[in-house]
C-alpha cells in the first residue's frame, strides 16, 4: 500500500510540475481557442442559419459557398500543421545545439519563458480551431465567421513565425541564458527569504533529548510547510531542526530532520510527530528554480564549468557567470540580513551566500584546469570587489576561498591583468584587516613572477626550485 501511495504521489507531482512549468499556459490558450470556436459557431448559426435576407452579403460572396469554405479551410489547416511542425522542429534543434554548448539547464530556461508558452499554445490552438471549423462545414451550417477568423489568425501566425524564430535565437545567446537564470535566482531568493525569516538559525539551549529522523524516499526537497511543522512541534512541545534544506538531494536513509525536546518522546507521540513533519516536507523528483535559489547558483556554475573547461575552451560565458555571481552575492549580502523568528520552533540554516561563494571557487578551479588566464583574472577581480563591499560576517568565507585558490595559480602565466587583480585583492584584504591572507597572496604572486622570462613546463608555471 505504501508503494502504491508513493507511486500515486509521484504521478501527481509530475502532473503538477508539468502544468506549472510549461503545459498549463498553452492549455489555457487552447481552451480560449475552443471557446472562440463555440462563439463563432453560434454566430454563424444566428446570422446564416435562419431564413430571410442574408446579412453581410459581401462577406458571404467573398468566401463563397460551403464547399468553397471547406476547401479553403482544408488548405489552411494542412498548411498550419506543416508550418507548426517544421517551425517547432527547427526551434528544438536550435535549443538542443545551445544546450550541448552551454548546459542542459538551457531547456529549463526555454520552457519557463512565458512568451514561448504563449507561442506554442497559439499555434496549437489555432490548428485545433481551423480543424474544428472545417469539420463544422456542412450544408446545414456555413462557417463564414469561423473561416474569416481562421484566415486572419493564420496571417497573424505566419508573422509570429518570424518573431518566434528571432526570439528563440535571441534566447539561446549565452548572455540571455545566463541573465535569465540570474533573474530567476533573485526571484527564488525572495521566496526562500520569506520561508527563512519564519525560522531560527540555532537550536535552543537546554533541550536534552534529540532524535534524527531519516527518510525512506528518493528525490529532492522542493518545499517545506512551516505552518504544519510549527503546529505539530507546539503540540508535542518540541523543536524541529531541518537537516535537508530546500534543494537537498535525498536517498534512502538520509537524515531529514532532527527532533529536539526537553523530555523524551516515545510511542504514539513520537510516531505522530514524525509523520506530520515528514508529510510537511515536499519531496519531488527534480529541483525547481521557482523557490530554490540554490538551483540557480548550481545552474550558473555548471554553465561556467562546461564552457570554460578543456571540453569547450570558451571563457566568455564563465566570465558572464562571474558577473552574475558577484551581483547575487552583493545583493544578498548588502541587504539587511534575513531576520529570524525567535519564537519559532523550526531551525533552518541559511546557506545562500555561502553556496554562491563556493560557486566562484569552483570557477577558479576550472580556470586552472583549462589555463584560462582571462577567466582567472575575472575570478580574482570578483573576489577583490566582494571583499571591499561585503559585511564583516561574510568576510571569513571569502578569505578562506582566496587562500584555497592560491594553489591554483601555479598553472597560470602571470599576465598583466592577473597580476593587477592579485594586487588589488591583496590590498582589499589588508584594508579589511586580513594581513595573513594578504601576505599569502603577495608571496604567491612573487613566486609566480619568478617564471617571467623563464621556460617552464605546461603543467606548472612555478619554477621547480620554488
Give a description of the structure.
The chain has helices spanning 2-48, 57-63, 66-101, 105-112, 114-136, 144-171, 174-196, 226-235, 267-280, 293-308, 315-334, 352-370, 373-389, 395-405, 416-431, 435-449; strands at residues 209-214, 219-224, 238-242, 249-250, 255-261, 281-284, 346-347. With 466 residues, it is an alpha+beta fold. Helix 11 (315-334) packs antiparallel against helix 12. The protein is flat, with a radius of gyration of 30 Å. The model has no long low-confidence stretch (mean pLDDT 85).
The percentage of residues in β strands lies in 5-15%
Biggest β-sheet strands, sense, barrel: 4 strands, mixed
**Helix residue percentage:** 55-70%
Put simply, the count of helices is: 16
| Outline | flat
Spans with pLDDT under 50 lasting ≥5 residues? Answer: none
Structural class: alpha+beta
Strand tally is 7
Spatial separation of the terminal alpha carbons: 66 Å
| Strand order of the biggest β-sheet | 1-5-3-7
Output the radius of gyration.
30 Å
Order of helices and strands: HHHHHHHEEHEEEHEHHEHHHHH
Mean of all residue-level pLDDT scores: 85
Question: What does the secondary structure layout of this molecule look like, with pairings?
Answer:
Layout: H1 2-48, H2 57-63, H3 66-101, H4 105-112, H5 114-136, H6 144-171, H7 174-196, E1 209-214, E2 219-224, H8 226-235, E3 238-242, E4 249-250, E5 255-261, H9 267-280, E6 281-284, H10 293-308, H11 315-334, E7 346-347, H12 352-370, H13 373-389, H14 395-405, H15 416-431, H16 435-449
Parallel strand pairs: 3-7
Antiparallel strand pairs: 1-5, 2-4, 2-6, 3-5
Amino acid at each position: 500500500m505504501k508503494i502504491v501511495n508513493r507511486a500515486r504521489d509521484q504521478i501527481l507531482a509530475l502532473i503538477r510540475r508539468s502544468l506549472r512549468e510549461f503545459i498549463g499556459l498553452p492549455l489555457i490558450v487552447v481552451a480560449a481557442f475552443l471557446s472562440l470556436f463555440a462563439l463563432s459557431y453560434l454566430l454563424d448559426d444566428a446570422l446564416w442559419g435562419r431564413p430571410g435576407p442574408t446579412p453581410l452579403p459581401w462577406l458571404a460572396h467573398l468566401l463563397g459557398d460551403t464547399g468553397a469554405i471547406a476547401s479553403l479551410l482544408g488548405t489552411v489547416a494542412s498548411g498550419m500543421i506543416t508550418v507548426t511542425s517544421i517551425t517547432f522542429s527547427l526551434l528544438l534543434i536550435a535549443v538542443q545545439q545551445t544546450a550541448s554548448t552551454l548546459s542542459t539547464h538551457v531547456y529549463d530556461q526555454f520552457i519557463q519563458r512565458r512568451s514561448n508558452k504563449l507561442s506554442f499554445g497559439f499555434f496549437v490552438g489555432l490548428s485545433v480551431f481551423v480543424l474544428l471549423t472545417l469539420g463544422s462545414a456542412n450544408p446545414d451550417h456555413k462557417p463564414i465567421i469561423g473561416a474569416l477568423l481562421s484566415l486572419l489568425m493564420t496571417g497573424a501566425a505566419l508573422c509570429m513565425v518570424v518573431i518566434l524564430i528571432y526570439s528563440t535565437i535571441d534566447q539561446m545567446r549565452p548572455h540571455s541564458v545566463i541573465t535569465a537564470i540570474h533573474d530567476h535566482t533573485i526571484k527564488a531568493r525572495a521566496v526562500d527569504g520569506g520561508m527563512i525569516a519564519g525560522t531560527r538559525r540555532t537550536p535552543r539551549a537546554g533541550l536534552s533529548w534529540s532524535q534524527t529522523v531519516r527518510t525512506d524516499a528518493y528525490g529532492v526537497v522542493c518545499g517545506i510547510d512551516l505552518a504544519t511543522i510549527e503546529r505539530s512541534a507546539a503540540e508535542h512541545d518540541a523543536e524541529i531542526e531541518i537537516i535537508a534544506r530546500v534543494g537537498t538531494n535525498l536517498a534512502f536513509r538520509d537524515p531529514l530532520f532532527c527532533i529536539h525536546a526537553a523530555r523524551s518522546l516515545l510511542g504514539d507521540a513520537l510516531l505522530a510527530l514524525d509523520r506530520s513533519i515528514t508529510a510537511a516536507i515536499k519531496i519531488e523528483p527534480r529541483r525547481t528554480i521557482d523557490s530554490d535559489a540554490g538551483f540557480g547558483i548550481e545552474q550558473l556554475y555548471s554553465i561556467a564549468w562546461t564552457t570554460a573547461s578543456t571540453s569547450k575552451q570558451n571563457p566568455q560565458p564563465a566570465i558572464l557567470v562571474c558577473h552574475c555571481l558577484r551581483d547575487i552575492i552583493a545583493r544578498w549580502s548588502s541587504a539587511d540580513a534575513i531576520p529570524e523568528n525567535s519564537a519559532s520552533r523550526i531551525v533552518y540554516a541559511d546557506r545562500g551566500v555561502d553556496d554562491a561563494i563556493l560557486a566562484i571557487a569552483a570557477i577558479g578551479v576550472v580556470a586552472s584546469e583549462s589555463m584560462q588566464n582571462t577567466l582567472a583574472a575575472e575570478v580574482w577581480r570578483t573576489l577583490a570587489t566582494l571583499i571591499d563591499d561585503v559585511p564583516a560576517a561574510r568576510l571569513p568565507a571569502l578569505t578562506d576561498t582566496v587562500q584555497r585558490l592560491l594553489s591554483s595559480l601555479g598553472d597560470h602565466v602571470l599576465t598583466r591583468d592577473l597580476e593587477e587583480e592579485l594586487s588589488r585583492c591583496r590590498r582589499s584584504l589588508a584594508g579589511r584587516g586580513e594581513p595573513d591572507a594578504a601576505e599569502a597572496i603577495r608571496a604567491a604572486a612573487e613566486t609566480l613572477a619568478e617564471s617571467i622570462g623563464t621556460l617552464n613546463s605546461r603543467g606548472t608555471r612555478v619554477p621547480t626550485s620554488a
